[in-house]
Structures are given as structure tokens and as C-alpha cells.
Amino acid sequence: MASSPLDVTLWMQAKIDADGTLYQEVAVYEIIDRFGEDFAYINSNGNCAIAKPVLKEFKRLTGDYVIWIRGERYWRKREDGDAEGRQQEF
Hints:
four-stranded mixed sheet; 3 helices
């Protein structure tokens, strides 16, 4: 059975629950290895990135429970003292 964006999202959420963080660069290569190249692409900067349907599902599933640290390109669980919104500038 083929994997879906939800399968990838559930894996991403499990990694954050277990490790506390998930760096995009590490995640994209693990996603390709575990789920296939359909869930990644090369972005305009020439970097590997996670496919947009996966990120959309990830955002829907995790809501404000997980935040994105833009400058260092990783997700982590929300902590006391974080600003409102999903994206944080650190």
C-alpha cells in the first residue's frame, strides 16, 4: 500500500513527540528513505524540501502544538514563553 501525506505527517509528529525537535534537513532525507521521493522536492534555492501536501497536513494535524523555528529550520513542541502563532523568529 502506498504512503500518503498523512502517513508522513504522523511519522513527523512521532519524531517530535519522541525527540522534542525535528530539523527539516534531517526530516526530508528520512522521509525520502522511508516514504519515497514523492514527498520531497528541490526548492527554488536548490535545497531538498518536504512536499507541500505533507506540510499542509502536518499543520492541520499539529495546530499550535508544534512551532516552526524559522532561522534554524526546525519544528519543536510549543513552550511557555513562545510568541503566538506557528512561526517563531529566533
